[in-house]
Structures are given as C-alpha cells and as structure tokens.
Design goal:
Layout (H helix, E strand, L loop, with lengths): L1 E2 L44 E8 L14 H10 L4 E3 L5 E3 L19 E5 L14 H12 L14 E8 L2 E6 L6 H5 L31 E7 L3 E6 L10 E8 L3 H10 L4 E7 L4 H4 L5 E16 L9 H9 L3 H8 L5 E2 L22 H10 L3 E2 L5 E3 L2 E2 L1 E5 L5 H15 L4 E4 L4 H4 L2 H4 L5 E6 L10 H4 L20 H11 L4 H18 L2 E14 L2 E2 L18 E2 L1
Parallel strand pairs: 1-12, 2-10, 2-11, 17-18, 17-19
Antiparallel strand pairs: 3-4, 5-7, 6-7, 8-9, 9-10, 11-20, 12-19, 12-20, 13-20, 14-15, 15-16, 21-22
Helix pairs in contact: 6-8, 13-14
Length: 555
C-alpha cells in the first residue's frame, strides 16, 4: 500500500497571488502550457475496461447551469467542457479554446471589459453536431435569463453585448471589469443551443435528463437511487479517455461505502471519502492508495436566518459557545480536520488569520441568552416572548459521523436550555429545495465557498443571491448585510490582490461576528483508489474529486 502525501496548494501561485500587469493581474496569468494544444496526454488510444466510482450522494441535476450541489459536478466535468479549466496549481488550461484569453495575447482588454474567444476547430457535440460560437453565446445568455433557474448569475449579468464573429470566434463587452470572472468561466460548462428548441422552457427541457456535451464521456444510462453510467466519447477532440466505461455508484451509508472499497466492489471512493474512523485501517489495505487531501470544504452548522429563533444574534453566539469544537475534531473526526473560524481556505492568499479564536464556554453562552431575554421555561427550555428556543437540525441520512455530531450537540445545547430536534433526509431531498430554498432551520453542511481560488463569495453572501427571496445564488443562510453587499462589489471590481485582501478580510470579520453559519473545520478528506488506477489527481480549485476522469487509466 502506497500513501502519497499531497503537496499543499501554493498561495503564491500565479492564480492566487498574480502580478499587477494590467487588468489580468487579478487572476489571469496561466503560466506555461497555455499554448494551442490543450492537455498533453499523448496519442489517443482505444478506450477499454471500466472503473466504478463510489459516492455517498446521488447526482440528480444534469444541466450544469441549474441549481445543483457538488456531487452533480462530477457528472458535469465528464460530459461537458468549459472554455478553459482551472488546474491543481491554480493555473488555467485550454479546453474548448485555442488559448486562454489574457491581456498579453489580446483576449482581454487592459481594462477587463472586452473579451475575445477563439474556439478549437473540429469539436463536435456527442450527437455529431459541430460546436460553434453560437453555443457559447447561448450558454452565456442563458445565465442572464431571469426566467431560468440559474445556479449563478454573478459576473454573467455584466455582459452587455455578445458578437459572433465566425463559427469559432466571438467577442463580448462587459459593463465593468469583474475580477472573479476568469475563475467563474473556468466552471462555466458550455451547452448546446440546438438541444433547446424554439419555445422550449430551459428549466424543463429533455436535455436536462439526457445531457449532450463535448466532453470525454457520453451519457449512457441512469438507474435512480443506484448508479449512473458513462461511456468514453470516441470523437473527443482531445486525447480522450483511456477507460471505456465509468459507473458512478451511489452508496449513502458511509460504512457500506468504505466496506465496498475495502472489498474491491468499487475502485474509487469519492465524495465524502473514507470516514475518519476508518482512516487507520484504510492506510494498511493492500492494493489501495490512500491519501489525506486538504480541500476547500468548510464543515458548517448552517443557519437559516429567516427562522425567528436563529435570527437572534445572541442565540447564534450562544450556540457557538456551546460547541466543544476541539472534542468534536478529536473524538469524532480523529484529529484529521483543521479548525477554522472562516469560510476562506487556509491555503488562500486571502485567508484572515486574525479572526477571534473560538472558545468553548457554555456558561458564557447561558449568560448571553439570559441578557437577551431567553429564560428557562417550566420544562427547562428557554423562552422569549412566547417563542421556545427550539429548532430542527438536518443533514444527509446515512452519514454516521455527522449523525454522531448532531447527537453530541443536541445534548450539549440541551444542558444550556436549547432544544435541537434531529430530522435527517436522503441526499437527493436534503440538497434540493430543502437546502436551496432555505427550508431548513440548521443544516450540517460542507461548503466550498470559492469559485476556484478567487476570493469572491457574492454567490453566498450577497442579498441578491438568496434563492428563497427570488434571487439567484447559494445564499441559503438568507444573510443580508448592506455593508457586505458593498464590500463584495468593491472586491469583485478591484484588480490588485494586495488591494483586494483587506476587503475580503473585512468580509470574513463580519461573517465571523454575525455567524450566519457556525464554522467547525476545514476538511482534510481521506481519499482512496485502487493502486493500479493511474491519473487520479486531487484539485483544491474544483468542488469534486473526480474532475479529471479523462486522465484515468489502468496500469
């Protein structure tokens, strides 16, 4: 068994701490390898064999631009391509474009408002239709359609005019420069215009269940509740996949998921990885490669601030004081994660290390509640103005570590006069409208707040990103703060990383003070795969572990 340490993400890479030259000093220098050829993977060979990927949550959203969660993106990366992708070292690499646009090569104007994209020749959709600039135009304009349930409008809404110059070239103008837009484009998968006929509602199009892409794998079949199967695209424009079939198998119980990895029923254990209680055993499994991977995911106790109990800041402060965070990390997670006070990954140039350190002090929490008017009722649960200090906590059913966390917190808070009920849901239910439309009170949720390494979090903290209030984004906390809204706009339109840093520090300070979620830790996930599987590579800049399936092969 080989254990491979992962080189930490370099905060000084050109993606996270670039030079000041022109507008593209913000994020855009793509370093070496941005030439015309894309990924240098060698000669294309006939794909063969299969790999079984085990995941704990079920992908259900196959149009990459509808509201979705991380697990869906494993399918998106296989079936679709962005114009260019973000690599593990934070640089960009061409996918559908001949080269990544920069100021230096004329792809972006010096002020960041004019863009020019040139597509590779000969790229086709899975149904044989040629990819054209009209598809890119359609994809970008769809994000601006107010009737479309877009996962993200941030950045795209600044596009004022798109011009198709030819089948392989287009330009667009933006109303203002937007520093995170390179990172956003690296996650914007291009979809086919011809799959959405005249008058078809893109929210309900047949494409959404039978996706057609340009990617290295094609959609084959889906058995709801069990698996999704993909097959290699023989007409892929790049060097293509070496493995003929990928079976993405859904196993919600983490213990069963690990058991199937141990016995060889699955080749790769992906989303959620190996639970910490199995880490020691996993490192000794013959024929397996097990790695401890720092990821951008922050484990949170996410709060719905529209709930009248949780809207009280004193309650949120008391809840946090009642969390014995170090015991949780040591006893339930075997010391593997890293405690944090923020949403910003600690590898980021923008991470604020001056935030107040969490203190476990339930007595202080009780005093805060007393001062705020929350007094014990006849049954010991605190009451204020006739409202019981009671709420429901939900998360993914079958995640036994999170379930143990809930039980631990339930008892800790009960001793403070706080009642927490537990009501967990299957993943497909938990992370659909229950999460996206803020139907929860509290949720145990692992969240990757950044798009790639860019520090912008407009999608999570801006008032206009509250889906439950008609916005478009991931602000399921229903957090709204005028000053944070201003800072998000300022940060996104500021070029220099050094100038952006204090802006995002203030945002982190406000989030830490207001506590729309209680930050627990940044994950170090235990990932495992068969030792004979080559090409598996973690990438802290994307939200899914199997982002590069086209690079996998059997030794």
């Amino acid at each position: 068994m080989k254990k491979t340490p992962l080189k930490p993400f370099d905060p000084k890479s050109p993606m996270t701490h670039p030079s000041r030259r022109g507008f593209l000093g913000m994020t855009m220098i793509a370093a070496a390898g941005l030439g015309l050829g894309g990924f240098p993977r060698g000669a294309k060979a006939q794909a063969s064999g299969q790999v079984i990927v085990g995941i704990s949550q079920e992908p259900t959203v196959f149009n990459p631009h509808l509201l979705h969660i991380e697990v869906d993106e494993g399918i998106h990366w296989a079936i679709f391509d962005p114009l260019f992708s973000v690599e593990p070292d934070g640089t960009f690499a061409p996918r559908l474009v001949t080269e990544v646009p920069t100021v230096e090569n004329g792809g972006v104007s010096a002020d960041g408002t004019e863009w020019r994209i040139r597509l590779k020749e000969g790229v086709t959709w899975h149904d044989g239709t040629p990819l054209t600039a009209e598809d890119v135009k359609f994809t970008l304009e769809l994000q601006k359609d107010e009737n479309f349930r877009a996962a993200r409008r941030t950045g795209h809404e600044l596009i004022e005019e798109i011009t198709v110059v030819s089948d392989t070239e287009l330009t667009w103008k933006m109303s203002s420069a937007f520093a995170p837009y390179m990172a956003i484009l690296s996650w914007t998968f291009i979809i086919p215009k011809h799959a959405f006929g005249e008058g078809v509602d893109p929210n309900e199009a047949p494409f959404n269940q039978s996706p057609i892409g340009t990617g290295p794998y094609k959609w084959d079949s889906r058995a709801p509740g069990d698996n999704i199967q993909l097959v290699a695209n023989p007409d892929y424009y790049g060097d293509g996949a070496s493995i003929e079939r990928v079976v993405v198998k859904y196993v919600p119980d983490l213990t069963v998921l690990y058991t199937q990895f141990r016995t060889g029923e699955i080749d790769v254990i992906a989303l959620q990885g190996i639970s910490p209680d199995h880490y020691a055993e996993a490192t000794a499994l013959p024929g397996k490669e097990v790695v401890l991977v720092p990821v951008g995911t922050v484990e949170t106790l996410s709060l719905n601030l529209a709930n009248p109990v949780l809207a009280d800041k004193a309650v949120r402060q008391a809840l946090y004081l009642g969390v014995d965070k170090q015991t949780v990390i040591d006893a339930l997670y075997y010391g593997l994660p890293t405690a944090t006070e923020t949403y910003m990954p600690q590898q980021s140039f923008y991470y604020d290390d001056t935030l107040p350190t969490h203190v476990y002090d339930p007595e202080e929490g009780k005093a805060i509640l007393e001062a705020a008017g929350w007094v014990p009722g006849s049954d010991g649960i605190r009451v204020k103005d006739g409202q019981r200090l009671s709420f429901v906590c939900s998360t993914t059913a079958g995640n036994h570590v999170r379930e143990q966390l809930q039980q631990f917190l339930q008892q800790s808070w009960l001793d403070m006069g706080i009642e927490m009920e537990i009501a967990n849901l299957p993943p497909a239910v938990m992370w659909s409208d229950h999460w996206m439309q803020s139907q929860f009170d509290m949720a145990v949720a692992g969240i990757i707040f950044l798009t790639g390494p860019d520090p912008d979090t407009t999608d999570y903290f801006h008032t206009n990103a509250i889906n439950a209030q008609g916005g478009a984004g991931q602000n399921t906390f229903q957090f709204s703060d005028p000053r944070v809204d201003e800072l998000l706009i300022e940060g996104a339109t500021t070029v220099s990383p050094e100038a952006r840093k204090p802006i995002y520090a203030e945002i982190q300070q406000t989030i830490r003070e207001e506590l729309p979620f209680l930050p627990l830790f940044q994950r170090n996930e235990v990932r495992g795969h068969a030792e004979a599987l080559q090409g598996y590579e973690p990438n802290i800049n994307v939200r899914i572990t199997f982002w590069n399936m086209q690079d996998w092969s059997w030794a």
